[in-house]
Amino acid sequence: MQLRPGTLSLLIAPGALLLGFFFLLPLAAVGRDAFVGGAFARVFGNELFVRGLAGSALLTFTAAGFSLLVGFVVALHLSRLAPALRGALAFFIALPLTFSGLIVAYGFILCYGRAGFVTQILATTGVDAVAFSGVLYSPIGLAFASSYYLIPRVVMLMLPVLVNFDWAQVSAAESLGARRVRAVFDVIVPQIVPTAFAAFCLVAAVVFGAYGTALALVGTRVNILPLQLYSMISETGSDFAAAAALSLVLTAICSLIMATGEVIAARQERSHAGV
Known about the structure:
The protein has helices at about 5-35, 40-45, 45-80, 85-95, 100-110, 115-125, 130-135, 140-165, 170-175, 180-210, 210-220, 225-235, 240-275. With about 280 residues, the chain is mainly α. Helix 3 (about 45-80) packs across helix 10 (about 180-210), helix 10 (about 180-210) packs antiparallel against helix 13 and helix 12 (about 225-235) runs antiparallel to helix 13. The radius of gyration is 23 Å and the shape is globular.
């Protein structure tokens, strides 16, 4: 059924208005301030920017890689359960997506902080509570806490692929003499790689631009770009043009990560399908 141009325009209008008012218009306002007085030169010429970019990249690859691994294992387990049980567990797994970064951070502090109940339980076994809780306020702890709301995203993306996967292909490969490991790499991996890569890029873009959890856990002790941006627009900041430039840089990097995931995943799917 082919829609009339007028009907199609009416269907597109709500989404176009939302995109214009809540993305394009704010982006234009920020861009106007960013291209004033050499703001980008000040941002790129600042040594803190280079360190922040390296810190953000390390955090992104660590958290996204860990989340992809755990999320795949969880999705694989859910795919083998009965539909009713799978749906119930998927509901609870997706609950962290409704929490803000601050809530996640405070939850981890209550669990793994110096006075957290997990830390206190481990302290009774001889674990140094100060040293153990100190890990939470480090880049490793930040990556661990960030994975709490990244893993559900991976599970939600990987689960449909694994549920609809034809496991008879693995049995057929084994019946032809292939070992289980060879069957997994030759049959399963090529079919899930596009979705896995897209999931990795999605969670990488999320953690690269997130600041709520990082701010509550580590403050400014860990140098990452979102916290640099926060310090620029807080009460102690005064260079709002540089803050606007840095915000555009963050937007561009996150958009590039997402676009890379979509493009490469689409190419891999076409290559696997023989198109």
